[in-house]
Amino acid sequence: MTRRIPHRLSGPDLGADMGPGSEEPPVPLVLRDVRYAYAGSQRWALDGIDLELASGRVLGLVGPNEAGKSTLCLVAAGLAPAAIGGRLDGRVLLGGRDTVTSASYEIAQRAGILFQNPATQLSATAPTVYEEVAFGPRNLGLPLDEVTARVEDALTTLRINALAARDPMHLSGGQAQLVALASVVALRPPVLVLDEPTSQLDPAGTRLVGSALAGLAATAATAILVVEHKTWLLAGLADEIALISSGRIVDRGPTLAVLEDERLVGLGVEPPPAIRLRRAVEARGMSLDPELLVGVSTG
Amino acid sequence: MTALPARPAVAGPAVDAVRLEGVGFVYPDGTRALSDVTLAIAPGERVAIVGENGSGKSTLARQLNGLLRPTEGRVVLFGQDTAGRHVAEIARTVGLAFQNPDRQIFARSVRAEVEFGPRNFGRKGIELDGVVEETLASIGLADEGRTHPYDLGYSRRKLLGLASVVAMETPVVVVDEPTTGQDAPGIRRIAALIAALSGHGRTVIAISHDMRFVAENFERVVVLGGGRVLLDGSAVEAFAEAAWPVLEATSLSATYPARAGARLGLGSTPTDAAFVDALAARQATTSGPGPRGSGRGPGSPPD
Asked: Where are the domains of chain A?
């Protein structure tokens, strides 16, 4: 799952300034000095966010409860303020186009979002898991063959073919989460915004989602923004990590560098277990040769 | 927390808080979720039920408070069979915090949500205020009493769902995936809450995928797979190398310190603390690195 190829998550050309004749495709997701307050709130939930995410790259977002992680997901996917109101300052560009001036059907084709709570995601109208996953592609107006291909591909990617005939409202929490993810994956958006996609999954399901996302980034060039408390999963998946606190990004860099940041613990973010164990050993005045634990699985 | 409600007064010290006898359950659509589950859980015990997605964990939790009734076998609480007892009556003995707080929360303020259970059980006045305030403080929501639950983020709604069950002061508390969506301080609050409940003699049964949380906070681990009990033992037993095939059979894996401990031949070390203790003990008995070259002495340079 670890991908250590040279890459660029950000750069000077932002896509935003690309004219119609440019050769380079626009950067799929750009946030420029974004501030956002929920409707009826005087407080900026996001307070000056700058972010760019290139095709095929995975950016992990970590931070304490109520730091603004879910809000950033809603804004990055163009749902806030378009669908839920509130006040937005700055610019959010999906595929080089400002979300404020885009129609909702345009936004829906440029970004897919997985909500934190999969129960919120499911349509509650589809009688089977298969229909649930087909719901999105159908609404895009795709031909039937294409809908079928996408549904089967998404079900296979997340290994939930066996659930195809089940009622989506009668699944376990983890199964519902995989179905919700499949329904977003089937839309094949250039940008995927995932709010804790593995929160209800067992360790094997978590690893499965990790490799599925790595596969989407590598083969479909999907740009992925993923909120995740399981830092061990990000260690093998994300190209970069951004640490968010009180609506601001306070650290951003290559995954392993951010995960070693001592401030993480103070901000309520657990480092991966290997880092934690090493620190616990050191705190007792001992040390441990990391070579001895090479290959011990962390997840 | 204040005294237990009168309900389990029939229970002597030898009576199990929860006993499942050959419990099986088949959903109306024919899906079998549980087969021949037999468990006896003592008052005050902390038990984690683990297993892969769809292994029957949440179904089992619902058997305990009567939301679902076994299609085979029986569920006995403090010596009383739950068959024929109304769910409202069972709720006085077993409180269940749902996996999804939004299926539980209904009130218009945080305080009203927490008050609802104890008020229904007859608490009022200063007594009610005491329970509510203490519970809100324990989960860090003391200043949010007037807040609408849906103005809280998901993680704090989850804590609220937990609090509203804890406030009912039932002798048995069942929590379904309590750590979902929580940051590290949130998990520490839940851990402290569970320790406090257990310290007051209340039985805590948690459904969880969070192996670290399980290893650090529960004295007993029940591994569920395909609706059956695959393993029932202490955290040290459940995360010992010999048990890994059982864990893997239900898509789980031992904690990192357990696997690191096994690699270094330290025995079963399910938690960071257990690993560090075992490493220190070995370094104390050998003058240098162990035969397999585990940790170095305190004087060694850092890596």
From this structure: 29-258
CB within 8 Å of B237: residues ≥ 6 apart: B221, B231, B243, B268
Distance CA B36, CA A229 (A): 35
For B272, the closest chain A residue by CA position comes to A277
**Cα-based angle B178, B37, A204 (whole degrees, multiple of 5):** 50
Hey, are the CB atoms on B296 and A200 less than 8 Å from each other?
no
Q: How far is the CA of A288 from the CAs of A8, A158, A219, A234, B269, in angstroms?
A: 34, 37, 38, 24, 15
Contacts of residue A1, Cβ cutoff 8 Å, sequence gap at least 6: A207, A210, A211, A214, A236, A237
**Set of chain A residues whose Cβ sits within 8 Å of the Cβ of B185:** 64-65, 268
Q: What's the gap in Å between the CA of A195 and the closest CA on chain B?
A: 10
Question: With a cut of 0.90, is the ipTM above it?
Answer: no
Chain B residues closer than 8 Å to A170 by CB: 27, 29
Q: Can you give the pLDDT of all 303 residues of chain B as single tens digits? A: 444 444 444 444 579 999 999 999 999 988 899 999 999 999 999 999 999 888 899 899 999 989 999 999 999 999 999 999 999 899 999 999 987 788 778 888 999 999 988 888 888 899 899 989 998 998 888 999 999 988 888 888 889 989 989 888 899 999 999 998 888 888 999 999 999 899 889 999 999 989 999 999 999 999 999 999 999 999 999 999 999 999 999 989 999 999 999 999 999 999 999 999 999 999 888 755 544 444 444 434 433
Which member of A170, A173, A298 has the closest CB to residue B100? A173
Interface A-B: count of C-beta contacts within 8 A: 156
Under 8 Å between Cβ of B182 and A267: no
Most A CBs within 10 Å: which of B151, B154, B248, as the mutation test of the A interface? B154
B279 touches chain A (CB under 8 A): yes
* CATH among 3.40.50.12280, 3.40.50.300, 3.40.50.2300, 3.40.50.620 for A29-258: 3.40.50.300
Residue B296 is given by DSSP the state B
**Which tokens is A14 given?**
């932002």
Of A270, A271, A241, which Cα lies nearest the Cα of A254? A241
Claim: this prediction has a pTM higher than 0.95? no
Q: For strands A87-94 and B172-176, give the pairing.
A: unpaired
Pick from A178, A200, A298: CB nearest B256: A298
Look at A273 and B283 and tell me if their CB atoms are within 8 Å: no
